[in-house]
C-alpha cells in the first residue's frame, strides 16, 4: 500500500507568517496546504510563492470550490498548485467540472465532505466522479461540538477512493488518525499555534513514519 501522507494546513493570513511556519515544519510534511484564510487574504500569489520555495512538496490550495468548478480553480492551477479542494455539498456539475479541469492539467482534487449530513449517500455519488481524495472534515465551526473526525471517517468505509481526514487533529489524536482508513492526515492549528511548531510536526512525522514502516 502507498505510504500515508502528512499535510500541514496553513490557516494563516499572510504569506510571511506561512513562510515562517514552513521554515520550521516544511521538512516534516508531504503536503503543504495553502489554507482557506490564506487563499482569501493573499490569493493565488500564496500558492506561487510556496510552490517556488518548496518545489518538491505537494502544494494544496484549499479553495473549497462551491460553484464555477471549471473556472474558479484556474488561477491556482496557473500558480502551480498540485491539488485543490471542491465541496461535496456543491452541485454534481460543479464537482464534475472541477475534476475534469484538474485532471486535464495533471492536478489532483480533494472532494471535501465538510458539513455534508448524508455522508454515506453523498460519498457514493461523488466517488464515481473520480476525485483523488474524499475528505472527512469537521470544520472549524463544528469543532467546538466535540465531533471526532476519526469516528466520522468510519461512515466512508464503503468507498474505495483514498480518504483524507481533518478537523482539530492534534499530537494526542494524531496516532488514531494515522491508524484510521485515511491516506492523508491533515493538521493545522495544533501545529502553527504551538509554541514550537517544528517539534510538534517532527513528532507527528515520527508517528506517521513508524506506521508506514510497519504496513
Ligand atoms: O479546512 C480547514 C477548516 O475549514 C482546516 O484547514 C482544517 O480543518 C485543518 O485545520 P485544523 O487542524 O486546525 O482543524
TrEMBL record:
GO terms for molecular function: hexulose-6-phosphate synthase activity. It is an enzyme of class 4 (lyase). Its EC number is 4.1.2.43. Pfam families: OMPdecase. Signal peptide: none annotated. InterPro entries: 3-hexulose-6-phosphate_synth (IPR017553), Aldolase_TIM (IPR013785), OMPdeCOase_dom (IPR001754), RibuloseP-bd_barrel (IPR011060). It catalyses: D-ribulose 5-phosphate + formaldehyde = D-arabino-hex-3-ulose 6-phosphate. Residues 5-204 form the Orotidine 5'-phosphate decarboxylase domain. The keyword Nucleus does not apply. SUPFAM superfamilies: Ribulose-phoshate binding barrel. Pathway: One-carbon metabolism; formaldehyde assimilation via RuMP pathway; D-fructose 6-phosphate from D-ribulose 5-phosphate and formaldehyde: step 1/2. Keywords: Lyase. It comes from the Bacteria. Coiled coil: none annotated. NCBIfam families: RuMP_HxlA. Belongs to the HPS/KGPDC family. HPS subfamily. This is 3-hexulose-6-phosphate synthase.
